[in-house]
């Protein structure tokens, strides 16, 4: 499962990148709005930091297919070929996906709440389909199960499309999809931090250090001990 950051805050992206093995960054219009900066200014900075080979996902804004395609052209022109054009999975979006795919532009079908949306996006040539796990849960559905079912639909129908699960609110959702072996998960920095936060682990490590310092003295490490 690829591990992707869902944020546009460059300080947070740098912090997560320096610790975790990360495959790229996803953004959406709301995430860009939170940065308070002009879109291409912040996106260019992200691209420069993650390098030309990492995945960057950027969403179109235009309401019609032709406009979405034009948005996609500009996105790839400015941010490079490893940039995935995120297209909402609406009727217009499906048409834009077909057109972008025909040009060899990488597409992430987004705003997916149903299995059928994902199936149609994959048929239209999307490389990734992004089900919104937590938002589906909030509607009374089962976000994890939806993402798993979409993964199965792709495999059973021989569709060359991966699940890029999005909208996580807790570690359990991420873990279940990791165990299932979906293609990718895009996760906000706070949920990423929570994946490794565990008081029992912290206490165990603290006890090891305390015992060692009892033997060798405070502040002594394996570098400085006799
Ligand atoms: O791009 C979709 C994803 O980022 C949505 O996440 O947390 O706003 O539900 P969230």
UniProtKB/TrEMBL annotation:
A cellular-component GO term for this protein: cytoplasm
InterPro entries in UniProt: Aldolase_TIM, TAL/FSA, Transaldolase_AS, TSA/FSA_arc/bac
Asked if the Swiss-Prot or TrEMBL record annotates the protein with the keyword Glycoprotein, the reply is: no
Q: Which GO terms describe its molecular function?
A: aldehyde-lyase activity; transferase activity
Instruction: Report the locations given in the UniProt record.
Output: Cytoplasm
One Gene Ontology biological process? carbohydrate metabolic process
The UniProt keyword set, sorted, is: Cytoplasm, Schiff base, Transferase
> NCBIfam families in the record, alphabetically?
PRK12656.1 (NF009299)
Quote the protein name from its UniProt record: Putative fructose-6-phosphate aldolase
């Amino acid at each position: 499962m690829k591990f992707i950051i869902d944020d546009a805050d460059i300080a947070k992206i740098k912090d997560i990148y320096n610790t975790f093995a990360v495959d790229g960054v996803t953004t959406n219009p709301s995430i860009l709005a939170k940065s308070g900066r002009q879109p291409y200014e912040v996106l260019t900075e992200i691209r420069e930091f993650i390098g030309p080979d990492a995945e960057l996902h950027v969403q179109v804004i235009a309401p019609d297919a032709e406009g979405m395609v034009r948005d996609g052209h500009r996105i790839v022109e400015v941010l490079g070929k490893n940039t995935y054009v995120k297209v909402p999975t609406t009727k217009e979006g499906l048409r834009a996906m077909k057109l972008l795919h025909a040009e060899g532009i990488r597409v992430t079908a987004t705003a997916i709440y149903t299995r059928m949306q994902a199936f149609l996006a994959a048929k239209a040539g999307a490389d990734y389909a992004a089900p919104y796990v937590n938002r589906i849960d909030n509607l009374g559905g089962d976000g994890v199960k939806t993402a798993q079912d979409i993964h199965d639909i792709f495999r059973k129908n021989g569709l060359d499309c991966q699940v890029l699960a999005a909208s996580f609110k807790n570690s359990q959702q991420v873990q279940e999809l990791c165990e299932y072996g979906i293609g990718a998960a895009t996760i906000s920095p706070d949920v990423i931090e929570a994946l490794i936060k565990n008081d029992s682990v912290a206490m165990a490590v603290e006890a090891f250090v305390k015992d060692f310092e009892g033997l060798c003295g405070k502040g002594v490490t394996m570098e400085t001990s006799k």
